[in-house]
Design goal:
heterodimer, A: about 110 residues, mainly beta, seven-stranded mixed β-sheet, B: 11 strands, about 0% helix, globular
Chain lengths: ~110, ~120
């Protein structure tokens, strides 16, 4: 069952902030965030692990609420280059046997205008 | 270093035919995952290979198969193509070790159109 992302789309002006949410009904080991621009491959943004560890790009921030199986991606002071579709991918907490198997949400389309 | 390379980038097939897609991972990466991307279903996991062994498989029919070679290159095959198989097929590579899925490096995909 795929995670649910909200909102489905968001429009910003440069400099504005946005939050994208990802919610799963499964117990998770990790949450991943990727951005995909039109016609391009998805690009890694961040991993948030059960237990609190995070790895990702310095300018990206996110949170993972393990009790609620929810994650949020925070985009601050948006730039034109932030435009694209943001996907969260979840990895179930299955004792390390779910390696490589990410279940992606439907995506959130972010558009940043000048 | 070179990224993930997928070939062919575009292909058109007719119903009933079969297709083979190829993926060359980043040098040193031993894990290759395959995903199907469609407007309606989004990104769906097909399978993952590590050191020539399939470690995980998604919920796709048996017409979808894959393999990985000793140099970590991977191929996926779809037999008896259906119209619904039209999609962008993405390959992603990663180191493959550790207790969790690390950063995935995606290729640009192979866009399959089934007529």
């Amino acid at each position: 069952q795929q995670p649910v992302q909200s909102p489905q789309a968001v429009i910003l002006r440069e400099g504005e902030d946005a939050v994208i949410n990802c919610s799963s009904s499964k117990a998770l080991y990790s949450v991943h965030w990727y951005r995909q621009k039109h016609g391009e491959a998805p690009v890694f943004l961040m991993i948030l692990l059960k237990g609190g560890e995070q790895k990702g790009h310095d300018k990206i921030s996110a949170s993972f609420n393990e009790k609620k199986q929810q994650s949020s991606l925070y985009l601050t002071a948006s730039q034109l280059s932030y435009s694209g579709t943001y996907f969260c991918g979840t990895e179930e907490d299955a004792g390390g046997t779910s390696y490589g198997k990410l279940t992606f949400g439907q995506g959130t389309i972010l558009t940043v205008h000048p | 270093k070179a990224g993930v390379t997928q070939t062919p980038r575009y292909l058109i097939k007719t119903r009933g035919q079969q297709v083979t897609l190829s993926c060359s991972p980043i040098s040193g990466h031993r894990s290759v995952s395959w995903y199907q991307q469609t407007p309606g279903q989004g990104l769906q996991f097909l399978f993952e290979y590590f050191s020539e062994t399939q470690r995980n498989k998604g919920n796709f029919p048996g017409r979808f198969s894959g393999r990985q070679f000793s140099n970590s290159r991977s191929e996926m095959n779809v037999s008896t193509l259906e119209l619904g198989d039209s999609a962008l097929y993405l390959c992603a590579s990663s180191w493959g070790s550790g207790s969790y899925t690390g950063e995935l490096f995606f290729g640009e995909g192979s866009r399959l159109t089934v007529l």
